[in-house]
UniProtKB/TrEMBL annotation:
The keyword ATP-binding does not apply. Keywords: Membrane, Transmembrane, Transmembrane helix. It comes from the Bacteria. One of its GO terms (cellular component) is plasma membrane. Residues 52-208 form the DUF218 domain. It comes from Crossiella cryophila. This is Uncharacterized SAM-binding protein YcdF (DUF218 family).
Length: 227
């Protein structure tokens, strides 16, 4: 019986090592999978609780005219304003190299104008109800700029308007700036049109959320305004 004791001990040690190694492999997979599920889950939510402001996160603009991605967000924010979800719409985003307008200015121009990018007539929002915050090269920088403006103006709550897959990271960042924040994403625009595009952005945002949780900095993913 004594002769079998070393063999039994080695087997127990081997089993323990296998379990430890399996845990080391599985834990990151569970974290990534859980985060991806959370990105997908929050993307399906549309919280239209009343807020002080509706914040339209910036995306590309061309000579003061919003891209299709940005216009979809602006149209959704206008709908929220008209339904009384927020009394003020805040557009945010800085100026890229060589640009004449900031993303915030392009958004403001669209909201207070009486036509869409394609020339279709639309209802304008009063100029005093749209505030442009002309800062931010990414989501975190933009929301930090909005938070500074909110402190000056006494705003405390914000409904974040972006694309569905961006909702979890954006509202998390907004909350970390001190704003009470929730998301009402647009269901229009190029980013939500195909399953392939949706999957790509879910994976991208999963990486973005994990990176932010680890570093509390932005990934600087500038494409389509999801940085």
């Amino acid at each position: 019986m004594t002769a079998h004791a070393p063999t039994t001990g080695r087997r127990a040690t081997a089993r323990l090592l296998r379990r430890v190694l399996a845990g080391i492999v599985l834990l990151p997979l569970l974290i990534v999978g859980g985060t991806a599920f959370r990105v997908w889950q929050v993307a399906r939510l549309d919280d239209r609780s009343t807020a002080d402001i509706a914040v339209v996160l910036g995306a590309a603009q061309y000579g003061g005219r919003p891209s299709d991605v940005l216009e979809a967000r602006l149209a959704h924010a206008q709908q929220l304003f008209e339904r009384g979800v927020a009394k003020t719409v805040v557009t945010v985003g800085g100026r890229g190299l060589g640009d004449t307008y900031t993303e915030a200015e392009a958004g403001q121009r669209w909201l207070v104008g009486d036509e869409t990018k394609s020339g279709t007539a639309k209802k304008a929002i009063p100029k005093d109800k749209v505030v442009a915050v002309n800062e931010g090269a990414d989501t975190l920088g933009s929301l930090q700029a909005v938070a500074r403006e909110a402190e000056k103006r006494g705003w405390h709550s914000a409904v974040i308007v972006s694309d569905p897959w961006h909702s979890l990271r954006a509202r998390t960042m907004a909350g970390d700036t001190g704003l009470a924040a929730w998301a009402s994403p647009t269901r229009r625009g190029p980013i939500v049109q195909t399953r392939e595009t949706q999957l790509r952005y879910i994976l991208r945002e999963t990486a973005g959320v994990l990176y932010y949780r680890l570093t509390h900095t932005s990934t600087h993913m500038a494409d389509n305004g999801l940085g």
